[in-house]
Amino acid sequence: xxxxxxxxxxxxxxxxxxxxxxxxxxxxxxxxxxxxxxxxxxxxxxxxxxxxxxxxxxxxxxxxxxxxxxxxxxxxxxxxxxxxxxxxxxxxxxxxxxxxxxxxxxxxxxxxxxxxxxxxxxxxxxxxxxxxxxxxxxxxxxxxxxxxxxxxxxxxxxxxxxxxxxxxxxxxxxxxxxxxxxxxxxxxxxxxxxxxxxxxxxxxxxxxxxxxxxxxxxxxxxxxxxxxxxxxxxxxxxxxxxxxxxxxxxxxxxxxxxxxxxxxxxxxxxxxxxxxxxxxxxxxxxxxxxxxxxxxxxxxxxxxxxxxxxxxxxxxxxxxxxxxxxxxxxxxxxxxxxxxxxxxxxx
Length: 347
What we know:
The chain is an alpha/beta fold and 347 residues long. It is built from 10 helices and 15 strands. It has helices at 4-14, 27-37, 53-63, 72-76, 93-102, 117-130, 144-155, 188-204, 300-314, 322-341; strands spanning 18-23, 43-49, 67-69, 83-86, 106-110, 134-137, 161-171, 210-217, 224-232, 237-243, 245-256, 260-263, 275-280, 291-295, 345-346. A 9-stranded mixed sheet has the order 14-13-12-11-7-10-9-8-15. Helix 2 links the parallel strand 1 (18-23) and strand 2 (43-49). Helix 8 packs across helix 10. It starts with a helix and ends with a strand.
């Protein structure tokens, strides 16, 4: 398992911090991701932009960010800023990520990076044109619990991985909430189903061949409030359910021919408590044979921005590249097509 504390200390000693700017003062960014990013030795939050200058100034002051802008354009024009974090609403991701890259900034964009694979390919082109790094912010890949789970799969500890089962849900019927606006890319599959797709691809280490889905839409919002699906990885499967009007819950089980890995809090890993994963050889019923691995308290948003900053400084690769992001959108496209066609869709 990687020693993140030791790596962070080495980076802090040998590499200069990357100067970051933030697009938007969203509630999620202010309360969750930005406090985590501020902890990183390689991540220096230098500016924040909102379309409301007063809101921008208040957010920047609360987080100790020295500069505040009243337009996104002003932030992108700031020559001090090297990297942009984009937590704008889903339907605004492509435009402002592409504009940031073409303004000479590296970009870490919140998921989903786009609303279709065709849109995501615009960002692939922007990366090639600008020479800047564009990455989709699946922070879970930075957490040591997921890195350990993948290592166990790769090492063959559970035998051959044949099935990943994922559940992720919460309850939200607030009509004003951006997650319930279809025109803004709301709904279960875009918001949380994307995690099931991304992490299954991470564990299997390959792309699925086809997809099938069943979707229930909210009669008022038009967004998918309950989405279930299956991905065919060629002799191996992901099965998942995600919902925006269900009891809050999340869990991942990876089943192999010789063992099982269970990730207890797979996605919203707390920044103030330890996480656990389980290895179970199935020798006793009810999970009684499961062995527990606990991880020290970490902030996965801090680890994510530190890894991105490290890639900028060293010229290294990012784990969840724009190429990986395009692949995720191709799967999501196929799931939406399947819900309409009622059958399997090729990815």
